[in-house]
Amino acid sequence: MTYRVRAVPVAHGGEGGILVSFEDVTDLERAGQMRRDFVANVSHELKTPLTALLGFIETLRGAARNDAAARDRFLAIMEREAERMNRLVSDLLSLSRVESSARQRPRDPVALDDLAQSTLNALRTLAEGEGVTLELERQGDGGVTVPGDADQLQQVLTNLVENAIKYGRDGGRVTVRVGRKARELAFRGPAVELVVEDYGEGFDPVHIPRLTERFYRVDTHRSRAVGGTGLGLAIAKHIVNRHRGRFRIESEPGKGARFTVVLPASE
Ligand code: ADP
């Protein structure tokens, strides 16, 4: 706990005194620390590809100037680094958009099963590149509509399925299930459950509480190698919170991971 203590001289009934006030600033302090950590992380994440780019520009100007093969190789690396920065900036913009919209509750009717279908269609080329099969299981007799923001919910699905493809088993499969639950205690009413499951490397459950923190990665090297920014789950969690939903993560190392989103259903 952190307190801010103030002492103010006061006059009372002809006598002087001092009024001492204690203000609990623990949350403020924590928010300030989080902001400082975030800025430090963003700077570090941007500086790494920038340093690589500057290094390669210098090499291209000097030693590799007349070596066509080296030039092509270096340009390919520079393109990868620039793409990494581009992804990071896009994710930062998404995060800030979600945060600034957090106060209003989204209310458009969104058919989650149709949204899952179109998201999987959009990701099929990426999956095929990794030899991964995408499966959609629609449970129940439809009626899986939630009040929400279609673009943001699509972003949740995209982030979860992209992760399942990236961290799943090469040549494996990713299953997406969408179904209605008659009653969810937390909402005192019907709910829609969305599950994204893969059968890849998974992670030790000790990581679960921190997995949705910005820039938290189980294996930084692996995340970078697959083009991760470390922000995908933080964005997804924010969006789910904005929809008053619940986010659950389960994994067994070596067997895969399961991400479940439960949202209040439209009446
Ligand atoms: P990244 O861009 O690094 O993938 P995310 O926020 O999407 O960032 O995920 C955070 C971390 O959670 C990842 O770096 C990875 O270690 C772990 N992770 C996420 N999804 C999966 C998954 N399906 N299987 C195994 N690990 C995962």
TrEMBL record:
Enzyme class: transferase
Single biological process term from Gene Ontology: cellular response to phosphate starvation
EC numbers for this chain: 2.7.13.3
GO cellular component, one term: plasma membrane
Keywords: ATP-binding, Cell membrane, Kinase, Membrane, Nucleotide-binding, Phosphoprotein, Transferase, Two-component regulatory system
Catalyzed reactions per annotation: ATP + protein L-histidine = ADP + protein N-phospho-L-histidine
Domain Histidine kinase: 41-267
Localization (cell): Cell membrane
GO molecular function: ATP binding; phosphoprotein phosphatase activity; phosphorelay sensor kinase activity
Protein name: histidine kinase
Organism: Tropicimonas isoalkanivorans
Residues of the full protein shown: 94 to 360 of 360
